[in-house]
Design a protein that fits this description.
The chain is built from seven helices and no strands. By secondary structure, it is mainly α. The radius of gyration is 24 Å and the shape is rod-shaped. It starts with a helix and ends in a 7-residue tail after the last helix.
Length: about 200
């Protein structure tokens, strides 16, 4: 056999294996960010299941604070409905709607926390303390899941946009960047916390 033919075959096989590895990497990274979104869904579902319990306990103590409680339930229902329709991981509009609903829910929960501060009996109630702790824990889990999702999306987008995968991405069905899940609380996050005694 001709050495030139052997070298050509080896180079051709190397190129084929490299292209296959690009395809496999794109699939792996896409699956990772889709799984990341699923983890957000799990944590948001947990939150949505806890909120009615939290409100039910609070209602026994705060008959006259109906507006706050109703705002929490309404925001929870809207966010929950959007999450149920969330094949959202591939749709920028769906992610923005979910983000908006989550912002409304966080705002309503913040108002509920302020109301709780005005009612020492409510804060001292064992059920309320447990539910508040669960909700706080869930908020941390949501934040962690959101961060993991956005990290996966960034890793996917970086790989898809890099050279040479950028030449093959469209051909392999990866024509668009994935969308980050961003909430409107970035200003609050960047602001220094206020502490008073």
């Amino acid at each position: 056999m001709d050495i030139g033919l052997i070298v050509t075959l080896v180079v051709l096989l190397g190129v084929i294996f490299y292209i296959v590895s690009i395809y496999n990497s794109l699939v792996k990274l896409k699956n990772r960010y889709e799984n990341g979104f699923s983890q957000i869904e799990v944590q948001l579902k947990r939150r949505y299941d806890l909120i009615p319990n939290l409100v039910e306990v609070a209602q026994g103590y705060m008959k006259h604070e109906r507006e706050t409680l109703e705002a929490v339930i309404q925001a929870r229902n809207e966010a929950s409905a959007l999450l149920k329709g969330a094949a959202a991981v591939h749709s920028t509009d769906s992610l923005q709607q979910l983000s908006g609903a989550e912002n409304q829910l966080q705002s309503a929960l913040g108002k509920l926390n302020f109301v709780m501060e005005d009612y020492p009996d409510l804060k001292a109630n064992e059920n309320m303390m447990q539910l508040s702790e669960e909700l706080s824990s869930t908020e941390n889990r949501v934040a962690f899941a959101r961060q993991a999702f956005n990290d996966s999306v960034t890793e996917y987008n970086t790989y898809r946009q890099s050279f040479p995968p950028v030449f093959f991405a469209n051909m392999f069905g990866h024509s668009q960047d994935a969308t980050l899940l961003e909430f409107d609380d970035s200003e609050q996050i960047q602001a220094a916390p206020k502490v008073s005694f």
